[in-house]
Amino acid sequence: MESFTPEELAAIERTSEALRQYPHLRRAFIRALQMEELFAIPEQLESLKQVVLELAAQYKQQQEQLNRIEQTANRALEVAERAQQTAERANEIAERALQVAERANEIAERAQQTAERANEIAERAQQTAERANEIAERAQQTSERAEGTAEHALQVALETRDIVSDMQKRLTRVETDVADLKGMSMELMARKLLPGVLGKLVRKLRVYEPDEFYRVMEEASLLSADDLAEVASADVFAHGHLRSNDTPRWFVVEASWGLGMTDVERAAQCAAILTQNGAPAIGTVLGRRITADARKRAQQLGVLVVLNGAPRNPEVTT
Length: 318
Prior knowledge:
- The protein is built from 8 helices and 8 strands; from the N terminus they run H-H-H-H-E-H-H-E-E-E-H-E-E-H-E-E.
- Strands 1-2-3-5-7-8 form a 6-stranded mixed beta sheet, with helices on both faces. Strands 4-6 form a two-stranded parallel ribbon.
- It has a domain at about 185-315: Dna-directed Rna Polymerases I, Ii, And Iii 27 Kd Polypeptide, Chain: A, domain 1 (3-Layer(aba) Sandwich).
- By secondary structure, the chain is α/β, with parallel strands linked by helices.
């Protein structure tokens, strides 16, 4: 650091005091010291201020752009989530549409058969009507023959009515038989599908017929006679160890072409009886379609839903 003599320090002090008392001497003093570049500092500071302001404005603009980009990204994410939900809903609607189409095809086939039968009856009726017309023409010629012809025409009409009535009864019986056959086919299909369906969720799986289950429960003496009779009325039973935690579970299965609230509640009730008596169980429903109310009820009661050979809520087994 440069040092000054007392005289120099006193001179500096006097100069500083004079500059404080007479500000207009400052410029002359700066020129005398050949430091005119100090005059440009205010302008440089002003330019620097303008640069800083411009940089601040650019930063603000960029921040606004980033905010808009973030908002756009958030909206895109929301749209993607809604699109995913829409796709899942469309998949469910497509499944129901397929089921409705299958049902419509069956109905159309029966309707075609009915139409063909009705066409045959109509042709016979037309032939009968033509014959009755011929008889009526002959009846105009002979009153006695006309009376006989009228009686015959009445008999033909009665026979035609009986034929139509019989056809309607047969169609009703056919529809009932078809519904029964569908129920039986779903029960048989349940026994066939269970190993493949539950095998993904359960190990050491064994499927039991109702009579086999009845014997096993009777030997175990876990249920009263009434409870055993009620539970054994289910369609199929299975037993195995859950893959999620290796605990043993019974599966009480209600099988039906179209699953409704009754099927879900029966499966849940039978599973509850087993669980309360020391045989932990999971109610299960298996079919081709299920009503929206039944699906919601199954979720509430913890009933496993299997549609078209695939579990739709496997989380109930965890």
